[in-house]
Amino acid sequence: MSETMFALLVEDSPTQALLTLAELEKVPNVKVDHAASLAAALEFIQRKRYHVVFLDLTLPDSVGDETVRRFCGAAPELAVVVLTNHDDDQQALMALEQGAQDYLLKAKLDAASLSRSFRYAIHRKRAEILVREARDAALEANRQLERRMRQIDCMYGVSRILESPELPLQVALEQVVAKAPSAWLKPDTIGVRLSCMTGLLPSGIVETPGFVETACRLEAQVFAGSRPAGRIEICWTETPPAEGDEAFSTSERELVRELARRVGLALERACVQKELVQLATTDFLTEACNRRHFMQSTAAEIQRAGRYGRPLSLLMIDLDHFKRINDQRGHAAGDEALKSFVVMARDLLRDQDIIGRMGGEEFAIALPETALNPALVVAERLRIRLAGLQVPVSGGEPITLSASFGVAECKVGAGEGLEACLGRADAALYRAKATGRNRVEPAE
Ligand SMILES: [Mg+2]
Description:
Blueprint: E1 5-10, H1 14-24, E2 30-35, H2 38-47, E3 52-56, E4 58-59, E5 62-63, H3 65-74, E6 79-84, H4 89-97, E7 102-105, H5 111-163, H6 169-184, E8 189-196, E9 205-207, E10 216-224, E11 227-236, H7 250-281, H8 291-308, E12 312-319, H9 322-329, H10 331-348, E13 354-359, E14 362-368, H11 372-387, E15 390-391, E16 399-400, E17 403-409, H12 418-434, E18 440-442
Parallel strand pairs: 1-2, 1-3, 3-6, 6-7, 17-18
Antiparallel strand pairs: 4-5, 8-9, 8-11, 10-11, 12-14, 12-17, 13-14, 15-16
Helix pairs in contact: 5-6, 5-7, 9-10, 10-11
Bound molecules: magnesium ion.
């Protein structure tokens, strides 16, 4: 020991103190202070850093194992050598259990034993601290690992939910939000909220029950492709962390970003799916149903009408002299005319009515819950509205249009199918054409 070391002797007996101090002063490079009570000793260690404390157990203000416990509790990093009057193994063991590093019998004190004990206590204390730190580190690593395992488990579950193709997106997102907080977040985390901006979700927002917006929150943007598609927020109830403190760990931040990424992919997939359905069912020019989709939807409506004994009518419509518009004004003008017809018809029809482009300038309309006479009224309104329409065309006069209509009520009670009913409506349309166009003809 070349550097100066500091020892504190805690001893209430003046005679014993003199004897012990005399021996301690013989130990090279050690400087000693003396306290005569536990209270005085605790004050000494507040003011100065000691390497070892020699501690008498019987003091005016504390006796026996209480003395060791109180002292070691107040100075957990300090090496302690207990001084005992009797050769008492029990008491020595007790002292070591309470946190002392060594013990010495007062009757056998000399410079050599004090020097040995001094060094031994320091080494032992260092070893104890190293062991404690290693144990704490292992426990913390374990906790981190367990948390990470829960996070991985949760992310796996979230992936399973988002990747299951049969699950509607809204339901999938609700499940994701419900799964997230208990599985990966701190116990005091109280809510996850997912807001979507794609218009794919009826509500636009799903959140865990009890979601409360607080100062403590973690956010991540959801992107579907390159478009911002929503946001994930995680909130919890504790008071905000002190400045500079990280409220969430790096791995939690990454996890939430990863979740946002996966939700974005699910939204992207749902968008593509929606577009595919749109493409498969819609006439690209007019956005009316295509022929196939019209036939499917209307056949289903006719079945339903037959089941419940409800009326249903069909209109077949052909724009008059349409070839003349294409020839005289060009195909772009013809396209505008077709689009205008659908926009006008949609405006006049109900939501449940189905309009389909059957080909060229020919359209069909299905009117559920509608018998022949009201269907004729609808056709007449469409005819009049169309006749009054002025379709603007760039670089020329607006186009005027008219159409011929054949109207048939489906004989659902007699088991008439879609093809047969359309055939009757088509025959009526042919008569309307043959008898001068721009008119409505009921089927026979
Ligand atoms: Mg004493």
